[in-house]
Amino acid sequence: MPSVTPKVSDLCTELAALRNRASVPDVLLQPHSASMEMTFYDGGQYPAEYRGDIFAAFHGSWNRSRRTGYKVVRVLLKNGQPTGEYEDFLTGFVIDDKSVWARPVGVAVALDGSLLVSEDGNGSIWRVSYAGGTRS
Known about the structure:
By secondary structure, the chain is mainly beta. It has a single domain, classed as Beta Barrel (Thrombin, subunit H). Helices cover 10% and strands 36% of the residues. The protein contains one helix and nine strands. It has a four-stranded antiparallel β-sheet, with no helix packed on it. Strands 7-8-9 form a three-stranded antiparallel β-sheet, with no helix packed on it. A two-stranded antiparallel sheet has the order 5-6. Strand 3 and strand 4 form a beta hairpin.
């Protein structure tokens, strides 16, 4: 019976062909963050540097020993292009590695420029507004 194990040279050729077709993501996300929905911020309530940036809801992964996701992040853009970085915007949903009290799902910009965040753990929608001043 012939061997079904591919030759190493065949695998190397196949990998080289795949590498030439692969796309590098503009923003690398932590595995199992489960980014569900995103929106471009086009409101006028937050500081000017937020306009055009992306807000993304990280639903989180239930099947990891250490929780990841469970937050809303701001993806930074410069001249309409991702810089490759994101920063935590809305956090605090993880109680410990065994429990969470909310799982963000959707994000939208309200007419007044605030951000609306939905979650499916409790069926809540939060309105996150900016009142000015310095950030801590």
